[in-house]
Amino acid sequence: MGFEIVLSARAAPLEAMLRQLLDARTLSGEIARPERLMAAMRHGVLNGGKRLRPFLVMESAALFSADGEAALRVAAALECVHCYSLIHDDLPAMDDDDLRRGQPTVHKAFDDATAILAGDALLTLAFDILADEATMLPAERRAALVLALARAAGAGGMVGGQTLDLEAERSRPDEAGIIRLQAMKTGALIRFACEAGAIIGGAAQEDRERLAEFGSAIGLAFQLADDLLDLTADAHQMGKATGKDAAAGKATLVALHGAGWARSQLNGLVGQAHALLEPYGEQAVLLKEAAKFVANRNS
Amino acid sequence: MGFEIVLSARAAPLEAMLRQLLDARTLSGEIARPERLMAAMRHGVLNGGKRLRPFLVMESAALFSADGEAALRVAAALECVHCYSLIHDDLPAMDDDDLRRGQPTVHKAFDDATAILAGDALLTLAFDILADEATMLPAERRAALVLALARAAGAGGMVGGQTLDLEAERSRPDEAGIIRLQAMKTGALIRFACEAGAIIGGAAQEDRERLAEFGSAIGLAFQLADDLLDLTADAHQMGKATGKDAAAGKATLVALHGAGWARSQLNGLVGQAHALLEPYGEQAVLLKEAAKFVANRNS
User: Fold this and answer.
1) Total domain count for chain B?
2) Does the predicted interface ipTM exceed a cut of 0.85?
3) Matching NCBIfam families, A to Z (chains A, B) (predicted)?
4) Fewer Cβ neighbours under 10 Å: the N or C end of chain B?
5) Residues of B in contact with A142 (CB under 8 A)
6) Which residues of B, range 102-161, sit inside 8 Å of A by Cβ?
Protein backbone atom coordinates (compact mmCIF):
# COMPACT_ATOMS: atom_id res chain seq x y z
CA MET A 1 0.00 0.00 0.00
CA GLY A 2 2.65 2.48 1.12
CA PHE A 3 4.66 1.95 -2.02
CA GLU A 4 1.72 2.78 -4.27
CA ILE A 5 1.68 6.25 -2.70
CA VAL A 6 5.39 6.66 -3.50
CA LEU A 7 4.77 5.51 -7.08
CA SER A 8 1.91 7.90 -7.54
CA ALA A 9 3.86 10.86 -6.10
CA ARG A 10 6.73 10.15 -8.50
CA ALA A 11 4.30 9.87 -11.40
CA ALA A 12 3.10 13.49 -11.08
CA PRO A 13 6.07 15.25 -12.75
CA LEU A 14 6.14 12.48 -15.36
CA GLU A 15 2.50 13.11 -16.29
CA ALA A 16 3.32 16.79 -16.74
CA MET A 17 6.30 15.94 -18.96
CA LEU A 18 4.23 13.51 -21.06
CA ARG A 19 1.49 16.13 -21.47
CA GLN A 20 4.08 18.64 -22.66
CA LEU A 21 5.60 16.19 -25.13
CA LEU A 22 2.18 15.15 -26.46
CA ASP A 23 0.62 18.52 -27.11
CA ALA A 24 0.04 19.48 -30.73
CA ARG A 25 2.70 22.18 -30.86
CA THR A 26 5.22 22.14 -33.67
CA LEU A 27 8.66 20.82 -32.86
CA SER A 28 11.59 22.39 -34.69
CA GLY A 29 11.83 21.10 -38.25
CA GLU A 30 8.26 19.86 -38.22
CA ILE A 31 5.00 20.91 -39.76
CA ALA A 32 2.11 21.08 -37.23
CA ARG A 33 1.20 17.67 -35.88
CA PRO A 34 -2.38 16.55 -36.72
CA GLU A 35 -4.72 16.98 -33.77
CA ARG A 36 -6.57 13.67 -34.21
CA LEU A 37 -3.29 11.74 -34.16
CA MET A 38 -2.08 13.61 -31.08
CA ALA A 39 -5.42 12.94 -29.35
CA ALA A 40 -5.06 9.21 -30.02
CA MET A 41 -1.49 9.28 -28.70
CA ARG A 42 -2.63 11.07 -25.55
CA HIS A 43 -5.47 8.57 -25.11
CA GLY A 44 -2.95 5.73 -25.20
CA VAL A 45 -0.44 7.36 -22.84
CA LEU A 46 -2.33 9.57 -20.35
CA ASN A 47 -4.48 6.77 -19.01
CA GLY A 48 -3.64 6.45 -15.34
CA GLY A 49 -0.91 3.84 -15.69
CA LYS A 50 1.18 3.08 -12.60
CA ARG A 51 4.34 4.34 -14.37
CA LEU A 52 6.50 1.61 -12.91
CA ARG A 53 9.09 1.72 -15.70
CA PRO A 54 9.55 5.52 -15.43
CA PHE A 55 9.93 5.12 -11.67
CA LEU A 56 12.71 2.58 -12.22
CA VAL A 57 14.50 4.95 -14.63
CA MET A 58 14.32 7.87 -12.21
CA GLU A 59 15.35 5.91 -9.10
CA SER A 60 18.19 4.13 -10.90
CA ALA A 61 19.44 7.45 -12.23
CA ALA A 62 19.32 8.92 -8.71
CA LEU A 63 21.80 6.26 -7.52
CA PHE A 64 24.38 7.94 -9.75
CA SER A 65 23.36 11.51 -8.89
CA ALA A 66 22.08 12.03 -12.42
CA ASP A 67 20.24 15.18 -13.44
CA GLY A 68 16.56 14.78 -12.55
CA GLU A 69 15.23 16.53 -15.66
CA ALA A 70 17.30 14.26 -17.93
CA ALA A 71 16.00 11.19 -16.12
CA LEU A 72 12.43 12.48 -16.42
CA ARG A 73 12.77 12.86 -20.18
CA VAL A 74 14.28 9.40 -20.61
CA ALA A 75 11.51 7.99 -18.39
CA ALA A 76 8.92 9.68 -20.62
CA ALA A 77 10.54 8.20 -23.74
CA LEU A 78 10.41 4.72 -22.25
CA GLU A 79 6.76 5.17 -21.28
CA CYS A 80 5.98 6.16 -24.88
CA VAL A 81 7.46 2.84 -26.03
CA HIS A 82 5.57 0.88 -23.38
CA CYS A 83 2.28 2.56 -24.35
CA TYR A 84 2.84 2.12 -28.10
CA SER A 85 3.30 -1.61 -27.49
CA LEU A 86 -0.01 -1.75 -25.59
CA ILE A 87 -1.85 0.13 -28.35
CA HIS A 88 -0.61 -2.27 -31.03
CA ASP A 89 -1.10 -5.31 -28.76
CA ASP A 90 -4.75 -4.39 -28.21
CA LEU A 91 -5.54 -4.25 -31.96
CA PRO A 92 -8.08 -6.73 -33.38
CA ALA A 93 -5.28 -8.36 -35.41
CA MET A 94 -3.34 -8.97 -32.19
CA ASP A 95 -4.95 -9.55 -28.74
CA ASP A 96 -8.24 -7.85 -29.71
CA ASP A 97 -8.87 -6.12 -26.38
CA ASP A 98 -11.63 -3.50 -25.99
CA LEU A 99 -10.67 -2.29 -22.53
CA ARG A 100 -7.50 -1.21 -20.80
CA ARG A 101 -7.55 0.12 -17.25
CA GLY A 102 -11.34 0.21 -17.56
CA GLN A 103 -11.24 2.58 -20.56
CA PRO A 104 -11.82 1.86 -24.28
CA THR A 105 -8.57 0.93 -26.01
CA VAL A 106 -7.25 3.38 -28.64
CA HIS A 107 -8.69 1.48 -31.62
CA LYS A 108 -12.11 1.42 -29.91
CA ALA A 109 -12.00 5.12 -29.02
CA PHE A 110 -10.68 6.06 -32.50
CA ASP A 111 -10.25 3.40 -35.21
CA ASP A 112 -7.76 0.69 -36.17
CA ALA A 113 -5.81 2.83 -38.65
CA THR A 114 -5.43 5.68 -36.17
CA ALA A 115 -4.32 3.21 -33.48
CA ILE A 116 -1.64 1.77 -35.76
CA LEU A 117 -0.38 5.26 -36.62
CA ALA A 118 -0.56 6.51 -33.01
CA GLY A 119 1.60 3.56 -31.95
CA ASP A 120 4.06 4.23 -34.77
CA ALA A 121 4.26 7.90 -33.82
CA LEU A 122 4.84 7.13 -30.12
CA LEU A 123 7.69 4.74 -30.91
CA THR A 124 9.24 7.40 -33.14
CA LEU A 125 8.72 10.12 -30.53
CA ALA A 126 10.62 8.05 -27.96
CA PHE A 127 13.79 8.20 -30.06
CA ASP A 128 13.17 11.90 -30.78
CA ILE A 129 13.13 12.58 -27.03
CA LEU A 130 16.28 10.55 -26.34
CA ALA A 131 18.32 12.12 -29.15
CA ASP A 132 17.20 15.68 -28.43
CA GLU A 133 19.73 18.06 -26.89
CA ALA A 134 16.91 19.12 -24.55
CA THR A 135 17.84 16.12 -22.37
CA MET A 136 21.02 18.07 -21.50
CA LEU A 137 23.05 14.87 -21.79
CA PRO A 138 26.29 14.55 -23.77
CA ALA A 139 25.77 13.11 -27.27
CA GLU A 140 27.64 9.95 -26.27
CA ARG A 141 25.00 9.14 -23.62
CA ARG A 142 22.10 10.11 -25.87
CA ALA A 143 23.36 7.73 -28.56
CA ALA A 144 23.91 4.98 -25.95
CA LEU A 145 20.33 5.39 -24.70
CA VAL A 146 18.92 5.23 -28.25
CA LEU A 147 20.90 2.06 -28.94
CA ALA A 148 19.96 0.36 -25.66
CA LEU A 149 16.26 1.20 -26.09
CA ALA A 150 16.24 0.03 -29.72
CA ARG A 151 17.81 -3.28 -28.67
CA ALA A 152 15.31 -3.69 -25.82
CA ALA A 153 12.28 -2.82 -27.96
CA GLY A 154 13.18 -4.44 -31.31
CA ALA A 155 13.20 -7.86 -32.94
CA GLY A 156 15.60 -9.28 -30.33
CA GLY A 157 13.61 -7.69 -27.48
CA MET A 158 9.99 -6.71 -26.93
CA VAL A 159 8.69 -7.04 -30.50
CA GLY A 160 10.46 -10.37 -30.89
CA GLY A 161 8.80 -11.53 -27.67
CA GLN A 162 5.39 -10.45 -28.94
CA THR A 163 5.97 -12.50 -32.08
CA LEU A 164 6.90 -15.56 -30.01
CA ASP A 165 3.83 -14.96 -27.85
CA LEU A 166 1.55 -14.97 -30.90
CA GLU A 167 3.13 -18.23 -32.00
CA ALA A 168 2.93 -19.78 -28.52
CA GLU A 169 -0.66 -21.04 -28.89
CA ARG A 170 0.46 -23.13 -31.82
CA SER A 171 4.10 -23.86 -31.05
CA ARG A 172 3.61 -24.74 -27.34
CA PRO A 173 7.08 -23.68 -26.17
CA ASP A 174 8.84 -25.73 -23.49
CA GLU A 175 10.04 -24.20 -20.22
CA ALA A 176 13.18 -22.71 -21.78
CA GLY A 177 11.03 -21.31 -24.58
CA ILE A 178 8.62 -19.67 -22.13
CA ILE A 179 11.49 -18.10 -20.19
CA ARG A 180 12.99 -16.75 -23.42
CA LEU A 181 9.62 -15.39 -24.60
CA GLN A 182 8.99 -13.58 -21.32
CA ALA A 183 12.52 -12.21 -21.00
CA MET A 184 11.96 -10.60 -24.40
CA LYS A 185 8.30 -9.58 -24.22
CA THR A 186 8.19 -7.91 -20.80
CA GLY A 187 11.69 -8.35 -19.39
CA ALA A 188 13.68 -6.34 -21.93
CA LEU A 189 11.99 -2.96 -21.29
CA ILE A 190 12.17 -3.34 -17.49
CA ARG A 191 15.84 -4.26 -17.79
CA PHE A 192 16.35 -1.17 -19.97
CA ALA A 193 14.57 1.02 -17.40
CA CYS A 194 17.15 0.15 -14.75
CA GLU A 195 20.15 0.15 -17.08
CA ALA A 196 19.09 3.55 -18.44
CA GLY A 197 19.56 5.11 -15.01
CA ALA A 198 23.20 4.05 -15.07
CA ILE A 199 23.67 5.39 -18.62
CA ILE A 200 22.08 8.75 -17.77
CA GLY A 201 24.33 9.05 -14.72
CA GLY A 202 27.45 8.14 -16.67
CA ALA A 203 28.06 5.21 -14.31
CA ALA A 204 30.91 2.73 -14.69
CA GLN A 205 30.35 -0.31 -16.93
CA GLU A 206 30.21 -2.53 -13.82
CA ASP A 207 27.35 -0.48 -12.37
CA ARG A 208 25.56 -0.49 -15.69
CA GLU A 209 25.70 -4.29 -15.77
CA ARG A 210 24.62 -4.54 -12.14
CA LEU A 211 21.57 -2.35 -12.75
CA ALA A 212 20.70 -4.30 -15.89
CA GLU A 213 20.86 -7.53 -13.86
CA PHE A 214 18.63 -5.98 -11.20
CA GLY A 215 16.20 -5.08 -14.00
CA SER A 216 16.27 -8.65 -15.31
CA ALA A 217 15.45 -10.03 -11.87
CA ILE A 218 12.47 -7.76 -11.32
CA GLY A 219 11.35 -8.25 -14.92
CA LEU A 220 11.14 -11.97 -14.27
CA ALA A 221 9.31 -11.29 -11.00
CA PHE A 222 6.92 -8.95 -12.80
CA GLN A 223 5.96 -11.66 -15.27
CA LEU A 224 5.59 -14.38 -12.63
CA ALA A 225 3.34 -12.09 -10.56
CA ASP A 226 1.35 -11.33 -13.72
CA ASP A 227 0.85 -15.01 -14.50
CA LEU A 228 -0.14 -15.67 -10.91
CA LEU A 229 -2.72 -12.85 -11.08
CA ASP A 230 -4.03 -14.07 -14.44
CA LEU A 231 -4.72 -17.39 -12.72
CA THR A 232 -6.22 -16.03 -9.49
CA ALA A 233 -7.52 -12.45 -9.87
CA ASP A 234 -10.79 -11.36 -11.46
CA ALA A 235 -11.26 -8.89 -14.30
CA HIS A 236 -12.52 -6.12 -12.04
CA GLN A 237 -9.36 -6.18 -9.93
CA MET A 238 -7.12 -6.03 -13.01
CA GLY A 239 -9.15 -3.57 -15.11
CA LYS A 240 -8.70 -5.95 -18.04
CA ALA A 241 -9.71 -9.45 -19.06
CA THR A 242 -8.12 -12.25 -16.99
CA GLY A 243 -7.82 -16.01 -17.37
CA LYS A 244 -7.03 -15.36 -21.04
CA ASP A 245 -3.75 -17.27 -21.03
CA ALA A 246 -5.36 -20.48 -19.83
CA ALA A 247 -8.33 -19.98 -22.17
CA ALA A 248 -5.94 -19.53 -25.08
CA GLY A 249 -4.05 -22.64 -24.02
CA LYS A 250 -0.92 -20.57 -23.45
CA ALA A 251 1.56 -22.21 -21.15
CA THR A 252 3.00 -20.12 -18.32
CA LEU A 253 5.57 -21.15 -15.73
CA VAL A 254 2.90 -20.74 -13.06
CA ALA A 255 0.57 -23.13 -14.93
CA LEU A 256 3.46 -25.62 -15.25
CA HIS A 257 4.69 -25.52 -11.65
CA GLY A 258 1.79 -24.21 -9.56
CA ALA A 259 1.13 -21.14 -7.42
CA GLY A 260 3.20 -22.33 -4.45
CA TRP A 261 6.30 -22.73 -6.60
CA ALA A 262 5.69 -19.28 -8.12
CA ARG A 263 5.52 -17.61 -4.70
CA SER A 264 8.77 -19.22 -3.62
CA GLN A 265 10.43 -18.18 -6.90
CA LEU A 266 9.23 -14.63 -6.33
CA ASN A 267 10.84 -14.58 -2.89
CA GLY A 268 14.09 -15.79 -4.39
CA LEU A 269 14.02 -13.10 -7.08
CA VAL A 270 13.38 -10.33 -4.57
CA GLY A 271 16.35 -11.58 -2.51
CA GLN A 272 18.53 -11.61 -5.61
CA ALA A 273 17.38 -8.11 -6.60
CA HIS A 274 18.13 -6.77 -3.11
CA ALA A 275 21.58 -8.37 -3.09
CA LEU A 276 22.43 -6.64 -6.37
CA LEU A 277 21.63 -3.28 -4.78
CA GLU A 278 23.81 -3.79 -1.68
CA PRO A 279 26.67 -1.55 -2.94
CA TYR A 280 24.32 1.45 -3.02
CA GLY A 281 23.21 1.20 0.63
CA GLU A 282 20.49 3.53 1.84
CA GLN A 283 20.20 5.25 -1.54
CA ALA A 284 18.63 2.11 -2.99
CA VAL A 285 15.85 1.78 -0.43
CA LEU A 286 13.04 2.72 -2.84
CA LEU A 287 14.36 0.44 -5.57
CA LYS A 288 14.30 -2.38 -3.02
CA GLU A 289 10.70 -1.50 -2.19
CA ALA A 290 9.95 -1.53 -5.91
CA ALA A 291 11.26 -5.10 -6.17
CA LYS A 292 8.97 -6.20 -3.34
CA PHE A 293 6.03 -4.33 -4.87
CA VAL A 294 6.54 -5.95 -8.28
CA ALA A 295 6.62 -9.42 -6.73
CA ASN A 296 3.64 -8.95 -4.42
CA ARG A 297 1.28 -6.70 -6.37
CA ASN A 298 -2.34 -7.76 -6.51
CA SER A 299 -3.48 -5.70 -9.52
CA MET B 1 16.87 4.90 -68.91
CA GLY B 2 20.55 5.58 -68.24
CA PHE B 3 19.83 6.76 -64.75
CA GLU B 4 18.02 3.55 -63.82
CA ILE B 5 21.27 1.69 -64.50
CA VAL B 6 23.12 4.06 -62.14
CA LEU B 7 20.42 3.55 -59.48
CA SER B 8 20.58 -0.19 -59.78
CA ALA B 9 24.39 -0.26 -59.60
CA ARG B 10 24.31 1.83 -56.44
CA ALA B 11 21.64 -0.44 -54.96
CA ALA B 12 23.89 -3.52 -54.99
CA PRO B 13 26.02 -2.73 -51.90
CA LEU B 14 22.86 -1.50 -50.15
CA GLU B 15 21.10 -4.82 -50.74
CA ALA B 16 24.10 -6.60 -49.21
CA MET B 17 24.04 -4.29 -46.19
CA LEU B 18 20.28 -4.78 -45.72
CA ARG B 19 20.69 -8.57 -45.96
CA GLN B 20 23.37 -8.45 -43.31
CA LEU B 21 21.26 -6.29 -40.99
CA LEU B 22 18.20 -8.49 -41.48
CA ASP B 23 19.64 -11.91 -40.88
CA ALA B 24 18.53 -13.71 -37.72
CA ARG B 25 21.87 -13.44 -35.91
CA THR B 26 21.91 -12.11 -32.38
CA LEU B 27 23.01 -8.53 -31.92
CA SER B 28 24.92 -7.70 -28.74
CA GLY B 29 22.57 -7.48 -25.76
CA GLU B 30 19.83 -9.36 -27.55
CA ILE B 31 18.31 -12.79 -27.36
CA ALA B 32 18.05 -14.54 -30.77
CA ARG B 33 15.59 -12.78 -33.06
CA PRO B 34 12.59 -14.94 -34.06
CA GLU B 35 12.96 -16.36 -37.56
CA ARG B 36 9.35 -15.76 -38.66
CA LEU B 37 9.59 -12.09 -37.73
CA MET B 38 12.91 -11.70 -39.52
CA ALA B 39 11.45 -13.43 -42.60
CA ALA B 40 8.54 -10.96 -42.63
CA MET B 41 10.97 -8.05 -42.28
CA ARG B 42 13.07 -9.35 -45.17
CA HIS B 43 9.92 -9.84 -47.28
CA GLY B 44 9.03 -6.19 -46.73
CA VAL B 45 12.52 -4.83 -47.41
CA LEU B 46 14.28 -7.11 -49.92
CA ASN B 47 11.64 -6.70 -52.61
CA GLY B 48 13.37 -5.10 -55.57
CA GLY B 49 12.67 -1.48 -54.65
CA LYS B 50 14.46 1.21 -56.67
CA ARG B 51 16.26 2.44 -53.51
CA LEU B 52 15.92 6.07 -54.46
CA ARG B 53 16.13 7.35 -50.87
CA PRO B 54 19.33 5.39 -50.11
CA PHE B 55 20.82 6.70 -53.37
CA LEU B 56 20.09 10.27 -52.24
CA VAL B 57 21.75 9.64 -48.87
CA MET B 58 24.86 8.19 -50.45
CA GLU B 59 25.23 10.82 -53.18
CA SER B 60 24.58 13.70 -50.77
CA ALA B 61 27.14 12.29 -48.37
CA ALA B 62 29.68 12.01 -51.20
CA LEU B 63 29.43 15.80 -51.77
CA PHE B 64 31.07 16.23 -48.37
CA SER B 65 33.60 13.40 -48.80
CA ALA B 66 31.84 11.39 -46.12
CA ASP B 67 32.87 7.82 -45.33
CA GLY B 68 31.06 5.48 -47.76
CA GLU B 69 30.41 2.74 -45.22
CA ALA B 70 28.80 5.22 -42.81
CA ALA B 71 26.58 6.55 -45.60
CA LEU B 72 25.62 3.01 -46.58
CA ARG B 73 24.49 2.23 -43.03
CA VAL B 74 22.46 5.43 -42.75
CA ALA B 75 20.94 4.69 -46.16
CA ALA B 76 19.95 1.22 -44.94
CA ALA B 77 18.35 2.71 -41.82
CA LEU B 78 16.29 5.10 -43.91
CA GLU B 79 15.18 2.28 -46.23
CA CYS B 80 14.02 0.31 -43.15
CA VAL B 81 11.79 3.27 -42.22
CA HIS B 82 10.47 3.63 -45.77
CA CYS B 83 9.66 -0.09 -45.95
CA TYR B 84 8.03 -0.20 -42.49
CA SER B 85 5.71 2.61 -43.61
CA LEU B 86 4.73 0.62 -46.73
CA ILE B 87 4.04 -2.52 -44.67
CA HIS B 88 1.74 -0.64 -42.28
CA ASP B 89 0.16 1.36 -45.14
CA ASP B 90 -0.77 -1.85 -46.97
CA LEU B 91 -2.64 -3.32 -43.96
CA PRO B 92 -6.40 -3.98 -44.30
CA ALA B 93 -7.06 -1.29 -41.67
CA MET B 94 -5.17 1.23 -43.82
CA ASP B 95 -4.97 1.11 -47.66
CA ASP B 96 -5.76 -2.63 -47.83
CA ASP B 97 -3.38 -3.49 -50.66
CA ASP B 98 -2.65 -7.10 -51.61
CA LEU B 99 0.19 -6.41 -54.00
CA ARG B 100 3.35 -4.35 -53.97
CA ARG B 101 5.83 -4.46 -56.84
CA GLY B 102 3.86 -7.42 -58.16
CA GLN B 103 4.41 -9.48 -54.98
CA PRO B 104 2.01 -10.25 -52.09
CA THR B 105 2.23 -7.59 -49.38
CA VAL B 106 3.63 -8.67 -46.00
CA HIS B 107 0.22 -9.18 -44.38
CA LYS B 108 -0.84 -11.37 -47.34
CA ALA B 109 2.36 -13.42 -47.31
CA PHE B 110 2.27 -13.74 -43.48
CA ASP B 111 -0.65 -12.34 -41.47
CA ASP B 112 -1.84 -8.97 -40.13
CA ALA B 113 -0.28 -9.36 -36.68
CA THR B 114 3.10 -10.33 -38.11
CA ALA B 115 2.95 -7.40 -40.55
CA ILE B 116 2.26 -4.96 -37.70
CA LEU B 117 5.16 -6.37 -35.68
CA ALA B 118 7.53 -6.53 -38.67
CA GLY B 119 6.86 -2.84 -39.31
CA ASP B 120 7.42 -1.99 -35.65
CA ALA B 121 10.68 -3.95 -35.64
CA LEU B 122 11.95 -2.25 -38.82
CA LEU B 123 11.27 1.22 -37.42
CA THR B 124 13.11 0.25 -34.24
CA LEU B 125 15.99 -1.27 -36.19
CA ALA B 126 16.49 1.98 -38.09
CA PHE B 127 17.33 3.82 -34.87
CA ASP B 128 19.48 0.91 -33.72
CA ILE B 129 21.56 1.23 -36.90
CA LEU B 130 21.92 5.01 -36.60
CA ALA B 131 22.95 4.96 -32.93
CA ASP B 132 25.37 2.06 -33.30
CA GLU B 133 29.10 2.80 -33.08
CA ALA B 134 29.45 0.52 -36.10
CA THR B 135 28.58 3.55 -38.27
CA MET B 136 32.02 4.88 -37.27
CA LEU B 137 30.53 8.36 -36.86
CA PRO B 138 31.09 10.58 -33.80
CA ALA B 139 28.26 10.35 -31.24
CA GLU B 140 27.25 13.95 -32.02
CA ARG B 141 26.44 13.01 -35.63
CA ARG B 142 24.74 9.75 -34.67
CA ALA B 143 22.46 11.63 -32.26
CA ALA B 144 21.77 14.31 -34.91
CA LEU B 145 20.79 11.62 -37.43
CA VAL B 146 18.46 9.92 -34.94
CA LEU B 147 16.78 13.24 -34.16
CA ALA B 148 16.40 14.29 -37.80
CA LEU B 149 14.99 10.90 -38.80
CA ALA B 150 12.58 10.85 -35.85
CA ARG B 151 11.32 14.32 -36.82
CA ALA B 152 10.93 13.28 -40.48
CA ALA B 153 9.15 10.02 -39.68
CA GLY B 154 6.98 11.01 -36.69
CA ALA B 155 3.72 12.82 -35.96
CA GLY B 156 5.01 16.06 -37.54
CA GLY B 157 6.38 14.18 -40.56
CA MET B 158 5.50 10.96 -42.38
CA VAL B 159 3.10 9.42 -39.84
CA GLY B 160 1.33 12.76 -39.45
CA GLY B 161 0.97 12.90 -43.23
CA GLN B 162 -0.47 9.39 -43.32
CA THR B 163 -3.06 10.46 -40.75
CA LEU B 164 -4.02 13.50 -42.83
CA ASP B 165 -4.21 11.27 -45.90
CA LEU B 166 -6.67 8.92 -44.17
CA GLU B 167 -8.78 11.93 -43.22
CA ALA B 168 -8.59 13.48 -46.70
CA GLU B 169 -11.50 11.51 -48.15
CA ARG B 170 -13.74 13.03 -45.52
CA SER B 171 -12.11 16.39 -44.83
CA ARG B 172 -11.45 17.33 -48.48
CA PRO B 173 -8.39 19.52 -47.85
CA ASP B 174 -7.90 22.68 -49.91
CA GLU B 175 -4.76 23.30 -51.98
CA ALA B 176 -2.71 24.42 -48.95
CA GLY B 177 -3.93 21.33 -47.08
CA ILE B 178 -2.89 19.00 -49.91
CA ILE B 179 0.56 20.59 -50.09
CA ARG B 180 0.99 20.19 -46.33
CA LEU B 181 -0.21 16.58 -46.42
CA GLN B 182 2.21 15.66 -49.19
CA ALA B 183 5.16 17.53 -47.70
CA MET B 184 4.66 15.39 -44.58
CA LYS B 185 3.63 12.04 -46.07
CA THR B 186 6.27 11.64 -48.78
CA GLY B 187 8.32 14.83 -48.64
CA ALA B 188 9.78 14.54 -45.15
CA LEU B 189 11.72 11.29 -45.71
CA ILE B 190 13.12 12.45 -49.06
CA ARG B 191 14.17 15.72 -47.45
CA PHE B 192 15.83 13.72 -44.66
CA ALA B 193 17.66 11.55 -47.22
CA CYS B 194 19.44 14.60 -48.65
CA GLU B 195 19.98 16.36 -45.33
CA ALA B 196 21.42 13.15 -43.86
CA GLY B 197 24.27 13.26 -46.36
CA ALA B 198 25.30 16.64 -44.99
CA ILE B 199 25.05 15.41 -41.38
CA ILE B 200 27.13 12.29 -42.10
CA GLY B 201 29.78 14.42 -43.77
CA GLY B 202 29.85 16.94 -40.93
CA ALA B 203 28.96 19.74 -43.38
CA ALA B 204 28.36 23.36 -42.34
CA GLN B 205 24.84 24.35 -41.26
CA GLU B 206 24.42 26.28 -44.52
CA ASP B 207 25.14 23.16 -46.58
CA ARG B 208 22.82 21.12 -44.40
CA GLU B 209 20.00 23.57 -45.08
CA ARG B 210 20.80 23.68 -48.79
CA LEU B 211 20.63 19.90 -49.08
CA ALA B 212 17.40 19.80 -47.09
CA GLU B 213 15.91 22.35 -49.49
CA PHE B 214 17.07 20.28 -52.44
CA GLY B 215 15.33 17.31 -50.80
CA SER B 216 12.13 19.30 -50.38
CA ALA B 217 12.12 20.28 -54.06
CA ILE B 218 12.56 16.73 -55.32
CA GLY B 219 10.11 15.43 -52.70
CA LEU B 220 7.48 17.73 -54.15
CA ALA B 221 8.44 16.61 -57.68
CA PHE B 222 8.23 12.98 -56.60
CA GLN B 223 4.67 13.44 -55.38
CA LEU B 224 3.54 15.40 -58.45
CA ALA B 225 4.98 12.72 -60.73
CA ASP B 226 3.22 10.07 -58.63
CA ASP B 227 -0.13 11.83 -58.92
CA LEU B 228 0.39 12.25 -62.65
CA LEU B 229 1.13 8.52 -62.98
CA ASP B 230 -1.86 7.59 -60.83
CA LEU B 231 -4.00 9.49 -63.34
CA THR B 232 -2.37 8.20 -66.52
CA ALA B 233 -0.50 4.90 -65.99
CA ASP B 234 -1.98 1.42 -65.74
CA ALA B 235 -1.57 -1.07 -62.90
CA HIS B 236 0.82 -3.30 -64.85
CA GLN B 237 3.27 -0.43 -65.39
CA MET B 238 3.23 0.53 -61.69
CA GLY B 239 3.15 -3.00 -60.19
CA LYS B 240 0.35 -1.79 -57.91
CA ALA B 241 -3.23 -0.58 -58.17
CA THR B 242 -3.65 2.82 -59.93
CA GLY B 243 -6.47 5.30 -60.25
CA LYS B 244 -7.13 4.75 -56.54
CA ASP B 245 -6.92 8.41 -55.60
CA ALA B 246 -9.63 9.45 -58.01
CA ALA B 247 -11.76 6.43 -57.08
CA ALA B 248 -11.45 7.35 -53.41
CA GLY B 249 -12.37 10.93 -54.22
CA LYS B 250 -8.98 12.12 -52.96
CA ALA B 251 -7.98 15.50 -54.30
CA THR B 252 -4.48 15.84 -55.75
CA LEU B 253 -2.84 18.95 -57.16
CA VAL B 254 -2.79 17.25 -60.56
CA ALA B 255 -6.54 16.61 -60.38
CA LEU B 256 -7.08 20.27 -59.40
CA HIS B 257 -4.86 21.90 -62.04
CA GLY B 258 -4.46 19.31 -64.82
CA ALA B 259 -1.59 17.34 -66.32
CA GLY B 260 -0.19 20.26 -68.32
CA TRP B 261 0.17 22.40 -65.24
CA ALA B 262 1.82 19.48 -63.41
CA ARG B 263 4.43 19.01 -66.16
CA SER B 264 5.32 22.68 -66.09
CA GLN B 265 5.56 22.61 -62.27
CA LEU B 266 7.86 19.61 -62.54
CA ASN B 267 10.17 21.51 -64.89
CA GLY B 268 10.27 24.39 -62.44
CA LEU B 269 11.12 22.11 -59.53
CA VAL B 270 13.94 20.42 -61.43
CA GLY B 271 15.37 23.86 -62.25
CA GLN B 272 15.14 24.88 -58.61
CA ALA B 273 16.79 21.63 -57.48
CA HIS B 274 19.63 22.08 -59.97
CA ALA B 275 20.19 25.67 -58.86
CA LEU B 276 20.53 24.55 -55.25
CA LEU B 277 23.32 22.18 -56.28
CA GLU B 278 25.35 24.80 -58.20
CA PRO B 279 27.94 25.29 -55.42
CA TYR B 280 28.97 21.63 -55.70
CA GLY B 281 29.77 21.72 -59.42
CA GLU B 282 30.66 18.46 -61.16
CA GLN B 283 30.38 16.47 -57.93
CA ALA B 284 26.62 16.93 -57.98
CA VAL B 285 26.04 15.60 -61.47
CA LEU B 286 24.31 12.40 -60.34
CA LEU B 287 22.10 14.24 -57.86
CA LYS B 288 21.04 16.50 -60.72
CA GLU B 289 20.22 13.42 -62.78
CA ALA B 290 18.24 12.08 -59.82
CA ALA B 291 16.10 15.23 -59.79
CA LYS B 292 15.32 14.79 -63.49
CA PHE B 293 14.59 11.10 -62.99
CA VAL B 294 12.19 11.77 -60.11
CA ALA B 295 10.27 14.32 -62.17
CA ASN B 296 10.09 12.28 -65.37
CA ARG B 297 9.77 8.69 -64.18
CA ASN B 298 7.09 6.57 -65.80
CA SER B 299 6.79 3.83 -63.19
Assistant:
1) 1
2) yes
3) FPPsyn (NF045485)
4) N
5) 139, 143, 146
6) 111-114, 116-117, 119-121, 123-125, 127-128, 130-132, 138-140, 142-144, 146-151, 153-157, 159-160
Model confidence band, residue B234 (pLDDT cutoffs 50, 70, 90)? low
For B85, the domain range is 2-296
Dihedral sign from CA coordinates of B117, B122, B123, B127? positive
Report the residue of chain A nearest B184, measured CA to CA: A31
What is the pLDDT at residue A44? 98
Question: Do B84 and B117 touch, CB atoms closer than 8 A?
Answer: no
Residue B20 confidence (pLDDT) above 50: yes
CATH number of domain containing B235: 1.10.600.10
Average pLDDT, stretch A84-110?
Answer: 97
Reported in sequence order, the residue ranges of chain A that DSSP labels E, i.e. its strands, are 99-100, 103-104
In 3D, which of B189, B239, B236 has the Cα closest to residue B52? B189
Q: Residue B29, class by beta-carbon neighbours within 10 Å (0-12 exposed, 13-18 middle, 19+ buried)?
A: middle
When mean pLDDT is compared across A142-156, B206-220, B221-235, the lowest value belongs to B221-235
From B1's Cα to the closest Cα of chain A, the distance in A is: 35
